[in-house]
Amino acid sequence: MQKNVKPCYYADYLQLDKLLDAQHPESTKYGAEAHDETLFIIVHQAYELWFKQVLHEIHAILPVLSQDPVNEDQLSTVNLRIERIHRIQEVLVDQIDILETMTPLDFLDFRDYLIPASGFQSIQFKEIEILLGLKSEFRINFDKKSFYNRLNEKDRNYLLNLEEQPSLFDAVEHWLERMPFLEFGDFKFWQMYKDAVEDMLKHDEQVIKDADYLTDAEKTFQLNDLSNTRSNFDALFDKDKYQELKQQGRFRLSQEATLSALFINLYREQPMLNSPFRLLQGLIDIDEKFTTWRYRHTTMVHRMLGTKIGTGGSSGHDYLKQTTQNNRFFRDLFNLTTFLIPRSSLPELPPEVIKAVNFHL
Amino acid sequence: MQKNVKPCYYADYLQLDKLLDAQHPESTKYGAEAHDETLFIIVHQAYELWFKQVLHEIHAILPVLSQDPVNEDQLSTVNLRIERIHRIQEVLVDQIDILETMTPLDFLDFRDYLIPASGFQSIQFKEIEILLGLKSEFRINFDKKSFYNRLNEKDRNYLLNLEEQPSLFDAVEHWLERMPFLEFGDFKFWQMYKDAVEDMLKHDEQVIKDADYLTDAEKTFQLNDLSNTRSNFDALFDKDKYQELKQQGRFRLSQEATLSALFINLYREQPMLNSPFRLLQGLIDIDEKFTTWRYRHTTMVHRMLGTKIGTGGSSGHDYLKQTTQNNRFFRDLFNLTTFLIPRSSLPELPPEVIKAVNFHL
Amino acid sequence: MQKNVKPCYYADYLQLDKLLDAQHPESTKYGAEAHDETLFIIVHQAYELWFKQVLHEIHAILPVLSQDPVNEDQLSTVNLRIERIHRIQEVLVDQIDILETMTPLDFLDFRDYLIPASGFQSIQFKEIEILLGLKSEFRINFDKKSFYNRLNEKDRNYLLNLEEQPSLFDAVEHWLERMPFLEFGDFKFWQMYKDAVEDMLKHDEQVIKDADYLTDAEKTFQLNDLSNTRSNFDALFDKDKYQELKQQGRFRLSQEATLSALFINLYREQPMLNSPFRLLQGLIDIDEKFTTWRYRHTTMVHRMLGTKIGTGGSSGHDYLKQTTQNNRFFRDLFNLTTFLIPRSSLPELPPEVIKAVNFHL
Amino acid sequence: MQKNVKPCYYADYLQLDKLLDAQHPESTKYGAEAHDETLFIIVHQAYELWFKQVLHEIHAILPVLSQDPVNEDQLSTVNLRIERIHRIQEVLVDQIDILETMTPLDFLDFRDYLIPASGFQSIQFKEIEILLGLKSEFRINFDKKSFYNRLNEKDRNYLLNLEEQPSLFDAVEHWLERMPFLEFGDFKFWQMYKDAVEDMLKHDEQVIKDADYLTDAEKTFQLNDLSNTRSNFDALFDKDKYQELKQQGRFRLSQEATLSALFINLYREQPMLNSPFRLLQGLIDIDEKFTTWRYRHTTMVHRMLGTKIGTGGSSGHDYLKQTTQNNRFFRDLFNLTTFLIPRSSLPELPPEVIKAVNFHL
């Protein structure tokens, strides 16, 4: 550590001269300051500060997971950063409660002065979406158009460029693909697993057929769903079927990545799989909290605008409702649950496989 | 206060002998207790306790709002009870985080033993929905069927009977209808309001036309939306148009109730309108928190089941997604925002009207 | 509303060029950037933004309560602002969870570069304390010294000057004093109240004496406490006794203000007392949340520094523990509970008193 | 998994007949039901349900950490259970907000009927305290007396007996003691560490002396504190000094346990130390959340009773204030921070030591 450290002063350290001189309501320029406009500004500035922090964490995580091979010693630090992002997200959701202390009538006092500014123009927000894994082609229609209309050329190119970089989704997929859980020499794990799956599905089928509390219509419905589950399982082990379902949008991860993620979930208690398991859980947490934030945002906008169009020109809460459903990052990890089998049916790993799993890592 | 009060003992007062002897995992009966099943039981029991509390509050609110006329002195107590319900709902949302500490693999250890039990069979939950204002005809299809299949005759009849009773929605509508905000003698409030609305819509139309940052497609879209808003406003003042939109499902409250609620929102600073305004805000808070809970529940089930069918036979998170969107109680109050006009355009109430407003109450 | 509103752009509106260029870790200047220093900076900047918002609300509340007489029509807006401050405080508490994602070992990577900056130098924070009602003479010793040593002359004078202005405590006291609840003509309210109090204390005394589950030592202890309560009650009605207890620090509000606050609490269901009651509850909420934040801050510092001295030179968490206990704003309002009597013993207000209460307001 | 699983019904599964028939307000027996007494009952019943769940988790953790040697494969599951306890605690804190929707005047409607019942008589709560590590001799005076006076003989003996069992504190201490971080063969780790500490303390001393922004009084204060820190460090390595400080209450963990915990903190990124590190963090989280709950409980009681005595005979919030400060479980782990040194000063572990650390586990 350095000698000759200059004394540090709070207000200079935090650059409060800049930070606290950045709140200038539009309403003041047009005659009378609307009391609640300061709240509106500060809520959004707080969001942008936290977005910067989230990006700081994502930019520290990406290099680690993009290595070839990944240094598994660094996974614990990656996990702490993912958990930090999740904790920040909790505050981002709570901040909506603060904004809701503004009533629609009070918003009307200055709303018109903000047009056409809106959250669409938050570059950091789009950066986060892109770096987590959202690509233009997945965005709903309004989003795609706004991408081009609402941003200046510099920002637009910056984001389009960013889409060309590997996202967290890509890095995670790549990390999973390089795991050695596809072949175990003589130990035919995946065959044993398939057999256990088939037993479980047969059992499930029987439970449905024997269930006298179900109507015929319901039995049909549930048997169809089981048939669906069966083809998902089949696809898991068949390259061509997997590709087909991937093209339909049922899967986004590659087949090898999905199988590795499944293995990690099934054998998470192996010491060397503890951190990989936490990583997958952490990504699920982030995705879940992100969509919860979108939903909360939707209901808040419904409250604030009724059925009117938002300042950015979208149909307010309808737009947000769609993005809530569609703009997910790690849906595959949620869906992985479909492929779990009960612990009691899980093949026990022989010592040499345990050794191989642990030594690779 | 009584003399001769018998000493009270904590464990007897809370009937802990009953309460703490109600946790009996199914998995124990079938061979080996699944550690996480106790959590599953206790989470749901905590929900049922809070449901009982919410019903206790609703049952205290209903009689007050069902009076004819309502004793406005009691509104402050009604508001405290609505705020209590909202505070309880916050904990009900947080409890989902506790359940999510159970992983899907752990749920698989005992999930099969629970079939076909599920939240569909929670009578108190359905009671809350019905008493807030949800009627069978509004429920999505699966809900309707489950209503009949999953409940025994006694419970089914109990709930169907309950649907015949006035709900909170009915009581609020009735209370709003009896307010004197439709006529003000010589003061033509609603005509002045209509004029202010027309000015606002003309101004909005001009803003759209003048906006060079909008594409033609966007201008068309926004002008259409404005036209939609215009017909909603027209319907506000025209009995037949209102009925038409009501039949389409655009409104649920009666026209008089909607106009009263609008008036309360516009003139909420009148001392005697403080409590009525808080009441409407409180109902919005409850509705918003309920739908947030439904959404959180959806993502949790997605996480827990993937794309599989839930123990109650529904398509797990798809079902919940639909109820999140459809089973709202006070949507009209959210949509009321569409009809607000800026304070600066609001007609000033002459003294005799202020007096009338306050003296009625 | 203005015509010719210039288009508004998100990044300009929020001055993101300033806001997002204010994060410059010290560790970078001394060789190697500590990853967690950005978090440290951003957490504190988010705090400062919210402090600004809280001050914005306090500055809007003060003028209303400082009027002579207060315009009771404005109380509902004051209450919404107090509730907004409370909602912001909830996020301020949650932000501590974000900072705790930094471990002490990571803090050690840059902690030395921050010396002697610390929260003591947050002018906005001290402003909030002063405007809520904290005066220098109440501050614990270390605080007093730091007031002079850690701030430059300009800031020090600004705050000392601010202490001369009426605080929210002063304004609330003044507002309470001007209420007409001391005399009610022929209706001897306070005599009736005193009698009801005496009955209640006699009853409480008997309950203690009859309690066979209490040891003699406990009976003595409880009877002493009752005796204490009795002198507090006596002081309530006796100018000289009240002054004495006030000098001892038992009361801070004036006697008239305390009696008014008590009356508001007892008769809060009177429509015109609804808003005054909410106001007192809101101040209690703010005080409670502030002290909860101080406590959370204490445990976080204990976690982060162990028993070491903080960057600002204080004994870290010991200092914070003291301020948690001592730096309260509205302790009187909490203590008011001591003087409540059961509703069943409350004198019923005759019509002319109800009228007087309501018409004054 | 079993065949022939009997259909499971929600209301039977959760034993709702028992659970929802356990709410019987005392006020009803004495004439008129107090509306808020149901809330009071249900809040406490919800607490007792969650206490049962916390005990269920603690009872699953204890056997794992009490093994000799501990099976490190099971640590990840222990950590998930600790995190579950922490998540439950968050809801326990939030439940206080629900109880605070009851005003003191409403509590007065039924408070007298509850005497002398109080939280002192919650056996589960005391069980949790004891199993986490609280022993009678650490309890403050009032607690000790109430232990004997307020409980019946059966419960008293049950708890006294429980104190004889190993608590989580004991199990953790034992687990830490058995770690091999005291000797590393030729690698004189602790000597290197001592040298690094001495350098750091010398540096800190110089920083204080050179600090011209400090007054002489402050310099003296800080140098004294440094001297204190120095003797703590000395004690770390000297059996007799450690024992002395242990007797003074400065340490509770044994010296070997403290050294192991310190090592885990310093080298937490070693893959095999990830889970041990999380375990220590988890215990800190639980302790911190417990004391936060106590503090929240204190302010709530202050609000509810003012300065009066609680139903259980203690001086209400004063009692709670003392337990908040004193009844901590893992204070040593917080204080461990005092002994950390910057990463840059940390001795690098040679390969054979890394191997030894990992292979032991």
Automatic annotation (TrEMBL), chains A, B, C, D:
Co-factor binding comment: Binds 1 heme group per subunit.
GO MF assignments: heme binding; L-tryptophan 2,3-dioxygenase activity; metal ion binding
Catalytic reaction list: L-tryptophan + O2 = N-formyl-L-kynurenine
E.C. code: 1.13.11.11
UniProt keyword list: Dioxygenase, Heme, Iron, Metal-binding, Oxidoreductase, Tryptophan catabolism
Enzyme class (EC, first level): oxidoreductase
Cofactors named for this entry: heme
InterPro entries: Trp/Indoleamine_2_3_dOase-like, Trp_2_3_dOase
Similarity-based family: Belongs to the tryptophan 2,3-dioxygenase family.
PANTHER family (alphabetical): TRYPTOPHAN 2,3-DIOXYGENASE
Protein function: Heme-dependent dioxygenase that catalyzes the oxidative cleavage of the L-tryptophan (L-Trp) pyrrole ring and converts L-tryptophan to N-formyl-L-kynurenine. Catalyzes the oxidative cleavage of the indole moiety.
Protein name in UniProt: Tryptophan 2,3-dioxygenase
Organism: Kangiella geojedonensis
Encoding gene (name): kynA
